[in-house]
């Protein structure tokens, strides 16, 4: 059965379609991470990176080294930069950009728009879909009305939304995003309380989401849910 685990900050582990997937895997410098990097040695099939800020690119390069069969999925320009800078083989890269689904051995992947900043290529969100379940990881983003299109096109069952404010949406803005996206089964807050700069009261988000008729799912770092 498919599972999702929050590793603190924006780092997510998804086990779905027989694959072990990491999104924005900041582990070593993540004060909330419940595991060490070696926990993922020779166990990861796919790493998704939404953008190149250090707290999202995280330990991608080292993880690829300790998982030689793992694939990297990100925007093409970011992939090209990482391939050139860190000598990652293109055999380990799934070329992509914002658009439609890409098939990865039974798991469908897509990149979406995000409103943020990035040095190499545009920031994105990510869609992971398999076993009849679709998950939307918004990456780092402010609120934008095209989230309605993401909801209409991909129809996510679960949405992972940043709520920490300052660099992304705050709880109030994220609650509006929930109305735009309309996740069918639940919405999980991420990218908050890692450091004081993004410290918020998650209960504010919970109250707002419930008042709009959606299901907030607050996880502790290391906690998993069955999807």
From TrEMBL:
Highest taxon in the source lineage: Archaea
Domain Metallo-beta-lactamase as annotated: residue spans: 8-191
Keywords: Hydrolase
Species, as recorded: Saccharolobus caldissimus
Signal peptide residue numbers: none
SUPFAM superfamilies attached to this UniProt entry: Metallo-hydrolase/oxidoreductase
Protein name: UPF0173 metal-dependent hydrolase SACC_00280
Similarity field: Belongs to the UPF0173 family.
Short name of any one Pfam family annotated for the protein: Lactamase_B_2
GO MF annotations in UniProt: hydrolase activity
